[in-house]
Design brief:
There is one protein chain. By secondary structure, the protein is an all-alpha fold. Helix content is 77%, strand content 0%. The radius of gyration is 32 Å and the shape is elongated. It binds fe (ii) ion (2 copies). One fe (ii) ion binds next to α9 and α10. The site of one fe (ii) ion has 6 residues, from α11 and α12.
């Protein structure tokens, strides 16, 4: 809801009435008299209720807006009854319409202010899988690879949550799979280079994940399983514990080999 445009639209009613008077138009006075038919009214009684219904400025805006439409409805009726002089007088300063119009304007501005403050205080929505210092193994190339993997797991998770098509999701999963394989290869090359004692054990863990994901892709392609966020939960948990339990040992060995 754009409250700036709501403000403008309500201010425009005066001009609309004056035009109707000079063109001797008929107006839908019953709808004009209702406070839940215009865009602002629908928003006030609809989606904003749950979010901002408890705010004083929301309650006030509703009350003032109701009076505004009541008064506007009276003018529209006067125009329909061809009481043009009377209608024109009702639009003047120091009239109930003018008062209601000014108060509605102020109420919208106050509501906008409170809605904006409220939005600014809302915590930023967190990613599904956030990188944290705890995950740093202290080796730049491994950390960078892991950051990229986390990003790709988030993309995969978002694609599923947004209900993207099967083709898009399997493409995202495939990219993740390719990058994971390349990352594992980089780690394994390092292990060979430093003649890492835990090489076999570490490589077996990589291979296990690779075959799990391969099976997953096959089952997906054959329509045996449906993708759910359980898959991204699994990938997140796997990477998280693999980094903490396995890659940290490797990074420590790499740094020891350097010294
Ligand atoms: Fe690893
Ligand atoms: Fe790794």
């Amino acid at each position: 809801m754009n409250l700036d445009s709501a403000l403008q639209k309500h201010a425009e009613w005066k001009t609309k009435f004056r035009t109707a008077i000079s063109n001797k138009e008929m107006l839908d006075d019953l709808t004009i008299a209702k406070d839940n038919c215009c865009e602002l009214g629908k928003w006030l009684y609809g989606e904003s209720e749950a979010l901002y219904g408890m705010l004083e400025s929301h309650k006030n805006c509703k009350a003032k807006h109701k009076i505004f439409h009541m008064e506007a409805g009276k003018i529209a009726t006067a125009i329909n009854l061809k009481k043009y002089t009377e209608a024109e007088a009702m639009l003047g300063t120091n009239t109930p319409y003018n008062k209601a119009s000014n108060e509605t304007g102020i109420a919208i501005v106050q509501l906008k202010k409170e809605v904006d403050t409220n939005a600014a205080q809302q915590p930023k929505s967190e990613a599904f899988f956030d990188w944290s210092d705890e995950l740093s193994v202290g080796n730049q190339f491994i950390d960078n690879d892991h950051k990229k993997l986390i990003k790709m797991i988030n993309n995969f998770h978002n694609a599923m949550q947004e209900g993207r098509g099967k083709e898009v999701i399997s493409k995202v999963l495939n990219n993740l799979f390719i990058y994971t394989s390349e990352h594992f290869k980089r780690e394994e090359d390092e292990m060979l280079r430093i003649k890492y004692a835990l090489f076999e054990d570490h490589r077996r863990k990589h291979q296990q994940l690779i075959s799990q994901v391969e099976n997953l892709q096959t089952d997906l392609d054959n329509g045996k399983i449906m993708l759910t966020t359980k898959v991204s939960d699994f990938l997140k948990d796997w990477l998280y514990s693999h980094i903490l339990q396995t890659d940290k040992l490797l990074a420590a060995a790499i740094s020891k080999a350097k010294s």
